[in-house]
Amino acid sequence: MDETWGRRSLRQLKQIANDPLLLIVILVILASLILFILYPLVKVITTSFLPEGKFSFSVFKEVFSSWYLRRAFFNSIMMGTLTALFGVGVGFIFAFTLARTDIPFKKFFHLIAIIPIISPPFIGALSIIMLFGNNGFISDHLLHLQNIKIYGFKGLLFAQIVTFFPVAYITLRGVLDSISPTLEDAALDLGGTRFKVFRRVTLPLAVPGIASAMLILFVETLADFGNPLILAGSQFPILSVQAYLQITGMYDLPKGSALALILLVPSISIFFLQKYLVSKKKYVTITGKPTSSTLKLVSPMVKWILFAVCLFFSLTIILIYASILWGSLVKVWGSNNTLTFYHFKYVFSVGFGAVKDTLIIAGISTPIAGVLGMVIAFLVVRKEFPLKHFMEVSSMLSFAVPGTVIGIGYILAFNSHPLLLTGTLLILLLNFIFRYVPVGIQSGVAILRQVDPSIEEAAIDLGADARSTFRRVTLPLMVPAFFSGLIYSFVRAMTAISAVIFLVSSNWNLMTVQIMSQVESGRLGAAAAFSVILVLIILAAIIIIRSILTLKYGRFGGTTLKF
Amino acid sequence: MSLKLVNISKIFKDPDHANKEVIAVKDVNLEINEGEMVSFLGPSGCGKTTTLRIVSGFENPTTGEVWLGDKMINDLPPNKRDTAMVFQSYAIFPHLSVGQNIAFGLELKGFKADIVKKEVEEIMSIMNLTELYNRSPDQLSGGQQQRVALARSIINKPSVLLFDEPLSNLDAKLRDLMRFEIRRIQQSFGITSIYVTHDQAEAMIVSDRIVVMNEGHIMQVGTPFEIYSHPVNKFVADFIGRVNFINGIVEETNEDASYKVGIGGKSKLITSSISPFSVGDKVLTVIRPESLSVSTGEQDSTAIFHGIVEKAVYLGPTVEYDIKIEGRENISAVTHNPVVEGVFKPGDRVNIDFNPAAAHLLGA
Ligand SMILES: Nc1ncnc2c1ncn2[C@@H]1O[C@H](COP(=O)(O)OP(=O)(O)OP(=O)(O)O)[C@@H](O)[C@H]1O
Ligand SMILES: [Mg+2]
Question: Which of A127, A136, A282, B158 has the least C-beta neighbours within 10 A?
């Protein structure tokens, strides 16, 4: 086997050597993947296992002997599991109701379910504090409750469900839309009751999607940092926050790395399990003609119950955003309701640097990540070269690695010569580029797999050389994927917090980090104003990119943009 | 220009097992004359596409040479070859309009915009595409896409046109129409062409000569008439149309290469055969169902077989029979004048005979 592998690599190498440009591109990409994705992870591992330059489990022993840190591990896993269960539950209800019933206001519900995806993940936590916290609007003003325990388990779980159920909704909506309603019609026709048809036909067909959504939600919740930092409190330790505190509070790098590693293992395993499940997916419904859903699967009563559930969650989300908006406009949240632009003025005077930095960093890094993603997708799908599989896996890895781990890895890896990058713009850019490159790769690979290779062959056959084929045929075909990837990674870059919180400096700061520190110092108004501006920037960017695309292409070339 | 394939073989290595090989094409020799349309016909996996891709330059032959006119083109990359391929999936550029698709090749060659436009309009009017100039490809029917793909190739005035199952994605009716369309255009431009198909009727309609392939080898090259009436072996006879193989023994050989063959106690003088036989040789008499005559009534002692109808399929203009013969394989027969000849029912006893001029001998 080895020998044949070697010979094959040699043959492929010979082929690539004919095209020096290709060879250089491949080498540069491989080198940067190793340096900016793998090396930081290796640093996390070595720092935690080699505390005094020698291999030992001492750090891990210390971690696991601490009752508090054991608790953090347990809490994180529990929070991930519960969020996966409830988040997917709510997501499924949304998806099913919107895909299979004829309730009114479907567009509205869909929009509401999408909104949390394009806003910073900790907005839920922020508004929960504003609504239910010590001076909370609901707890204090409406219900006059004192000491409602919003910090800790309950509050965090609620925030996580609201934050992450939209992800489940999007996944499951796709799944349900791809299950042809004719199957359900056929089952009804064979005499099944509605509930039986749902249980015996719809649900089993959706099971792989449901499982996959649960795994995604588990990984995302486990990795989440913003909500727990605001809401967990000291009574309810969470792993990602504890890793952060070990590093920034105690300057204990080995222990922080060990916690990061403990966070990394379940994340990576679940991530690959999910990938495996998706690749095994065997339920494909083949439909020759598009079938319009006949919407017979639920009785009127069930329909209105589902409607009520959707309405409840939608109103909750509206409440969250309304409270943020309101909070940004009143003088002192909870006690002085005079309308004022004071907080916005504050943001633009004190915090303008962060706004500018965020725009610069996201604006530079996401197009680079997008182009890099397209190039890697092209190489992986259309070229043969040694280490191709390595390139694919390592570039996708940053999807699976929690931001906290990456952030710790970056400060460990790039804090000394010759790679002294901490405190610079470059480290932030690199972090964003390599975190969001998988987005581009995924959409690029998806579109290239759809493009029949004979389309490129046709161009060659008509006389185009390799370069003009890429430029005139392959590249234009990838443009829609590029832009939809771009929107997505821009949103992620604007709202990221977990990794960058380790990497910001007084020279280069980010809005999300600013929001966090405003919350910590109790300036909810300023935090809310920052959040509003952040969401507005994101919306503006999405609208601009989409209108450019629509102007230039009239349509999205067959790919559906998520937003 | 003429096209010549000399000793072409192509062996694929299995990427995961170096010692596993697939022989896709083996020792193919073929000469195609200028302006001729030749079709490759054969079962799935017999190497048709591979041969075509070797001509277009997308595969390198393991051994052998490709000659275009008096030039050996083995080392020319596909974009430098004067061949044009019409892909099975049409491979129309989805991001370009119909007009831009057709203009693609000329633009690459650096022609001026006004010349390109003139040429494109000309070819589009020849191919009845004029109205579609600004359409985007996803708004075209299958037949229109097919014509766009053809126009995009032909506009470059290639020396050789290569079609890989160009009609397999169309419905039956459109397929019938497009066959003639392709043939008409190929003839009016006089372009040397190869047409890959596994539909024998299609091969017969469009081509000057047919190349029958099996397992990478060329079995026979000939006009549709030759292939159908004088197949060189059992595979070809069986692959093209329906056929009966009737065992017999050579009783007499003649100077003019005709043979008296004994079949079921009777003798027939058969003039068409593939190889010299000697007296006593076992032979297969190839006889097409439509060459058999079927009749009822008294047992006709001159008829070669007597049998019982097992199955009769009435199709209007023809009737197809499956007839059981004592001690032999069933025989299929087709009659063409059911009103006059009558339609026999399963169970009917029938006499079967054939005119020896319609028969052909193969070695058994
Ligand atoms: N790239 C390849 N690698 C390995 N084997 C191949 C490759 N391309 C073709 N083959 C093999 O070569 C043989 C001939 O394939 P080819 O595509 O030429 O058949 P074909 O006659 O065009 O069949 P069809 O009528 O199904 O299109 C097949 O056994 C096929 O599996
Ligand atoms: Mg083929």
Answer: A282
Please compute Rg for chain A using Cα positions.
25
Contacts of A455 in chain B (CB under 8 A): 91-94
Model confidence pLDDT, tens digit, residues A75-98: 999 999 999 999 999 999 999 999
Q: Which residues make beta-bridge pairs with B285?
A: B246, B361
Shortest-distance Cα residue to atom 28 of ligand 1: B45
The answer to whether B86 contacts chain A (CB < 8 Å) is: no
What is the crossing angle of helices A123-132 and A524-553, to 10°? 140
Question: Contact at 8 Å (CB) between A67 and A242?
Answer: no
Whether residue A461 and residue B83 make contact (CB cut-off 8 A), yes or no, is: yes
Do B78 and A457 lie within an 8 Å CB cutoff? yes
Q: Is the peptide bond before A418 cis (omega within 30 degrees of 0)?
A: yes
Opening angle at CA A18, ends A12 and A19, nearest 5: 100
Per-residue model confidence as pLDDT tens digits over A497-543: 888 899 988 888 889 998 888 888 888 888 999 999 999 999 998 88
Q: Please name which ligand lies nearest the alpha carbon of B9.
A: 1
pLDDT tens figures, B42-96: 999 999 999 999 999 888 999 999 999 999 999 888 888 889 988 888 888 888 8
Q: Give pLDDT tens digits for B256-277.
A: 888 999 988 888 888 888 878 8
Q: What residue's CA is closest to ligand 1, atom 29?
A: B45
CA-nearest of B198, B273, B288 to B238 is: B288
- Which amino acids bring their CB within 6 angstroms of ligand 1? B 12, 22, 24, 42, 44-50, 198
Interface check for B259 against chain A (CB to CB < 8 A): the answer is no
**What domains does chain A contain, in order, with CATH numbers?**
1-40+341-563 (1.10.3720.10), 57-317 (1.10.3720.10)
Centroid of chain to Cα B78 = 26
Kindly provide the b/e burial profile for residues B310-322, where b requires at least 16 CB atoms within 10 angstroms of the residue's own CB.
eebeeeeeebbbb
Domain ranges within chain B, ordered by starting residue: 3-237, 245-363
B315 touches chain A (CB under 8 A): no
CB pair distance less than 8 Å for B58 and A457: yes
Q: Determine the residue type at B126.
A: I
CATH superfamily, with its number, for domain B3-237? P-loop containing nucleotide triphosphate hydrolases (3.40.50.300)
| Chain A CB within 8 Å of residue B84 CB | yes
Give the model's pLDDT for residue B15: 63
**Which chain A residue has the Cα nearest residue B87?**
A454
The residue written with tokens 């400096």 in the block is A505
Torsion of CA B98, B104, B105, B109, to 10 degrees: 150
**Strand B209-214 relative to strand B266-270, pairing:** unpaired
Contacts A3 to B, Cβ<8 Å: 18
Pairwise CB contact (< 8 Å): A455 & B92: yes
Task: Report, as an integer, the average pLDDT of B292-318.
Answer: 86
- Record: contact A459-B104, CB cut-off 8 A: yes
**CATH number of the structural domain B245-363:** 2.40.50.140
Q: Which residue in chain A is spatially nearest to B15 when comparing CA positions? A: A8
A546-549's contacts with Cβ under 8 Å and 24+ in sequence apart are: A546/A487, A549/A480, A549/A483
The rounded Å distance from CA B12 to ligand 1 centre is 9
The pLDDT value recorded for residue B88 is 82
Does the CB of B87 have a partner CB in chain A at under 8 Å?
yes
Q: Quote the minimal CA–CA distance from B172 to chain A in Å.
A: 18
Is a pLDDT exceeding 70 seen at residue B225?
yes
CB A393 within 8 A of CB A252: no
Q: How crowded is the C-beta side of A367, counted as CA atoms within 13 Å?
A: 7
What predicted TM-score, i.e. pTM, was given to this entire model?
Answer: 0.74
Hey, what amino acid is at A503? L
Does the complex come out with an ipTM higher than 0.85? Answer: no
Evaluate if residue B326 carries a pLDDT over 70.
Answer: yes
- Out of A455, A468, A557, name the one closest to residue B108 (CB): A468
